[in-house]
Amino acid sequence: MEPVKKQQFIEEFVPRLHASPPPEVLDHSLPAIRSDDDLNGGLIQVSGVKSRAAAVLVGLIERDGELHVLLTQRSDSLPTHPGQIAFPGGKIDDTDPGPVECALRETFEETGVAPEFVEPVGFLDVYQTRTGFRVVPVVALLKPGFTLVPEAGEVTAIFDVPLSFFMNKANHLRHSREWQGATRYFYAMPFGERYVWGATAGMLKNLHDRVFGP
Fold first, then answer.
1. Residues paired with 59 in a beta bridge
2. Could you tell me the CATH number of the domain that includes residue 197?
């Protein structure tokens, strides 16, 4: 796929996004559109797990005339999802007015990118994880001038990948693992030494589907 230019993104991608946060991120009586089990016949509910609202930032940086996706690598010492590639984000707190404010707060805490450098442009479908999170991805353009500062103890690396790589369907792989006696399938989009998979890859697949789908 050709590099994705900023103007192309604004003209062709943004109109295919949700203009406001989908209601199911907060109204958990509504079904989530996407989930960790998109490749396993629909979401398998995990008993004893209370659903919690969360938001992440799909931040896009312009480098050498094309857009790149900002990603983090979680610390190996974290109790959940250690070492995994993720978007900056987290649980929506009671003090957050909404998903956008949560994504901005978490992004600043995890990467050092302050809210004044973030221009939200739309939302992806709500994504349900097996660990009980209802996640709304906030898509945003990042303005130049910020300094990246990984959150100590939480983030080991901050890096970016060309958006065109994730928008190339040839890079949308289906991998599997054994989990609780069954084979589970998930999306994976390895980029060099970075193994992008699970919820992060699923949300990027959702971005592709919204832009290039019917």
1. 140
2. 3.90.79.10
Two structure tokens written together for 25:
């991120």
Query: Has residue 46 got a pLDDT over 70?
Result: no
How many angstroms separate the CA atoms of 189 and 167, rounded? Answer: 10
**For the chain, the helix, strand and coil percentages under 3-state DSSP, each to the nearest 5:** 25, 35, 40
Print the domain residue range for 25.
6-212
pLDDT tens profile 98-157: 999 999 999 999 999 999 999 999 999 999 998 889 999 999 999 999 999 999 888 999
pTM for this predicted structure: 0.94
DSSP state for residue 165 in the 8-state scheme: H
SS3 (DSSP) at 85 = strand
Query: Which DSSP string do the residues of 104-141 spell out, in sequence order?
Result: HHHHHHHH---GGGEEEEEE---EE-TTSEEEEEEEEE
SS3 (DSSP) at 15: helix
The answer to whether 70 and 142 have CB atoms below 8 angstroms apart is yes
- pLDDT, mean of residues 11-26: 96
Q: What is the DSSP letter of 164?
A: H
Considering the domain boundaries, does residue 198 fall inside one? yes
Please give the tally of structural domains in the chain: 1
In a domain, 1, yes or no: no
Mean pLDDT of the chain: 91
